[in-house]
Amino acid sequence: MASDSYLTISEVVAQLGTEYPDLSVSKLRYLEDEGLVSPARTPGGYRKYSDENIARIQTILQWQSEHFLPLSVIKERLEQIEEGEGSDVDKIAENPHEEFRASLQNRILLKQIHTELGVTDSFIQDLAKTGLITIRTGKSGEYIDGVDAEIAVDAWELKSFGVDPRHLKMYAYLSQKEADFFEQILSPAYRIRTDVSAKRLDEALREIGKVTTSLKSRLAQKALYGRLKGLL
Length: 232
Hints:
The chain is mainly alpha-helical. The protein has helices spanning about 10-15, 25-35, 50-65, 70-80, 90-95, 95-105, 115, 120-130, 145-160, 170-185, 195-230; strands at about 40, 45-50, 105-110, 135-140, 140-145.
């Protein structure tokens, strides 16, 4: 592969950011720290991403956004692919929210949070106070589930912009209001549960999740640009 086919970390964010607006430089660094992607380095130490690296990142982001897979599961499945064992992605596509529900059963003990996620215990405690995540107690001690772990990582990335957990309390409130709203819309249509209705509901939830994520991102960008365009 020619050297000019490599992209810098900021170029990767620019290229994939349209499809995945939550992608950031810090998230790419985190994926590298977790062993999910391994870009080459220039003699000066700068990251350079190959086409193979970018395709791998796209797979990770797709599995996160469409199948709600936690990073630990994604890493395991990528390793299975590399070893020629397959990934069971077709099974996920049949019922994408099964993986989301399964991730609720994953547990990360608070005493392992920093090692597993790179997030401090005090930060986790602050997130719990805002209502964004829930700290539970099991036989081995206090823990959070896999979904809350992903939320914690996202919140930690925002910390680099000066955003503290207390600033995120509005998201916990708004997510509950949004859930209430869509529950009122969807419940009447899917009140009688059959295999067909369950599949259609999963498809509806998946599509709603993608569209509302895109809508909220675009509205936020529009509002921020309007307020800060004088500084650009």
